[in-house]
Specification:
Blueprint: E1 2-6, H1 12-28, E2 31-33, H2 35-38, H3 47-60, E3 63-67, H4 75-86, E4 90-94, H5 109-114, E5 116-118, H6 121-140
Parallel strand pairs: 1-2, 1-3, 3-4, 4-5
Helix pairs in contact: 1-6
Length: 141
Amino acid sequence: MLAYIAGPLFNAKEREFLEEINSICKAIGIDTYLPSQDAGLSGKDNDAEIFQMDIKALNEASIVVASLNGADVDSGTAFELGYAFAKGKKLFGLHTDLRVFSPTSEVNLMILKSCVVCHSLQELDTALRDYFKTEVDSKIN
């Protein structure tokens, strides 16, 4: 099983948070694709190559695990989630931010209804372990 790890990469703290998500997946036994490590960071000379690598990884992934933090979900992350949803991938989102999208919703409705939304790293770990166990059990039986 391959997990595509999605989220903003604009500063060291955002990248560290995605690395924590990556570590959780790997500890469960899920292979990962972390764009900042596997494709590199964006730069004007290699943006097209990075885009193609990310799309390839999204196509190969079974699941997408995304940081939903921020006043609104990062636009690149929203694209990755929408693309993966359209491809029938299972989506997990992690929202630990105190900021909310609106007074009635923590994140945009389209993201909220397409993802299993977790509110802590521990909750994400549990949700991924449950999903991974179900998938492994279904392949054995």
